Fold:
Amino acid sequence: MSAVDIVLQAFDSSFVLTQQAILPDLSYSLDVSAEINLTQQISAADLSGVFFFKTDEDITSLPTDSSFVEYYVDRTQFTGGAATLNPMNGTVGTGSYTAGDHLAKDFLRDMAQQLFNTHFGVDLFTNEDAVITDISGKAATVAADIFTLIGNVDKTNGINMGGTNATYGKYKKDDVSTTNLTREILNQLLTLSPTRFTDKTALRLGGVPGLYGMPFVAGDSISYKLSVTAHASQNTTVATGKGVLGTRTYRIKFLVA
Structure:
């Protein structure tokens, strides 16, 4: 005899959830004096190969639960290396004293503004080149340190990672630290532009179910804050009666092509 499926309508039930699924709100704002747009850009398609993630299967929504997501970074795909993120390799836009200045020239003008009440006083300095060299060297160190941070979560060379996938390399789990870069980017995109994740098939890397490139689009940006402070004795070396000079802050903005 064949099996039968018996339906008991008396057992029909329904319920409405009390709890809602939520995402971390990682939409940050930066309080800065000026903004520097970096010169080097990387296409949205190429950048999605730098920051990508994997779930255990192709699903209808993207979780941030540690049991499902592996976060990857491929630093070798970041065109230009540390130089791409060097704050000297860009021009000051919003908040500038003079359009088109680089970081060092802008900061010299800011020191003049604080000392002489006019940024045109920059021409009174007799060692501009030496100060520019100092700023340039320190900016290169900043870029190198940032590139090291990227390397620390790289799929090949990462340290203190969450595991290793035999195909894709080392990954981070749902580590909430700010250095888990792919997770930071994913959650900010989910917060700020969730509709980008509607078509999961289009997000797949190499057509692999569950493997997703970050859905960057041209015009996106990745920013960090840089604070620059003059030498503590600057106000006494150039004694114009001013107090200790204030720190000038910059949004360093890497633009996605």
Q: What stands out?
A: The longest strand covers residues 221-228. The longest helix spans residues 128-151. The chain has a mean pLDDT of 84.
